[in-house]
Design a protein that fits this description.
By secondary structure, the protein is an alpha/beta fold. The protein has a single domain (about 15-195), classed as Rossmann fold (3-Layer(aba) Sandwich). It is about 30% helix and about 20% strand. It has 6 helices and 10 strands; from the N terminus they run ααββαβββαβββαβαβ. It has helices at about 15-35, 45-60, 85-95, 135-140, 175-180, 185-190, and strands at about 65, 75-80, 100, 105-110, 120-125, 145-150, 160-165, 170-175, 185, 195. The strands form 2 sheets. The protein has an 8-stranded mixed β-sheet with strand order 3-4-2-5-6-7-8-10, with helices on one face. Helix 2 packs across helix 3 (about 85-95). The protein is globular.
């Protein structure tokens, strides 16, 4: 489920109109890629998390980590799934063999006794029932993209919250939480999300 986002040639000098057109085409192409993931998911829990694994892949793709945290070529992007073995197995299976920027993706199952600060992305499934505030201490010193699917996850301090709109998956972004985690999210990603403000600034 690896999306293909076409890139356009970059001429030496571009008018503002050309820049706007190029950005519009990129957003349209990216929007199409995300739309391909927003399929009905209620009927089958395994399908739901295969779809969400595609979202996690794209979140990795459109996030920049600070120096010292961005993987070097050939080194893995480390993804952790917290507190739900079934979800871990589905996500790990969906991302097995995928590569991003010449780096593999390594998926690990973690729990409350594990060090979480060394991961690039930490996914908190709904059944884990852990609010972002309870993980703050465990993420200190890292630059972790915290993604969850509990109601209000992004507003409560997560970076990205996956939400269901009807039978489709959408996502919310907390830009303040991303900045606090030293992460830079692509403008394309932000443009396709619902931006939320923290409940407790």
């Amino acid at each position: 489920m690896k999306p293909i986002v076409p890139t356009l040639p970059r001429p030496g000098r571009r008018s503002r109109a050309a820049v706007r057109i190029r950005r519009g085409l990129q957003l349209a192409a990216l929007g199409l890629c995300w739309a391909l993931l927003t399929v009905p998911v209620r009927a089958d829990g395994s399908l739901e998390y295969q779809v969400k694994a595609g979202f996690l892949f794209n979140f990795l793709k459109f996030t920049d980590w600070p120096p010292g945290f961005q993987p070097e070529a050939g080194k893995p992007y480390r993804v952790a799934v917290y507190g739900d073995r079934d979800v871990y197995e589905t996500v790990a299976g969906a991302l097995r063999g995928k590569r991003l920027h010449d780096s593999p993706i390594e998926v690990t199952a973690v729990g409350p006794d594990d060090d979480l600060s060394g991961y690039h992305l930490l996914f908190i499934p709904r059944r884990a029932g852990v609010p972002p505030a309870k993980l703050t201490g465990k993420l200190a010193g890292g630059a972790v993209l915290l993604v969850g699917e509990q109601e209000g996850f992004a507003a409560e301090g997560g970076v990205i919250g996956l939400v269901l709109r009807g039978d489709n998956v959408r996502f919310q972004v907390n830009l303040s939480a991303a900045e606090h985690a030293k992460l830079r999210l692509s403008g394309h990603l932000a443009a396709l999300s619902e931006i939320v403000s923290p409940e407790h600034p």
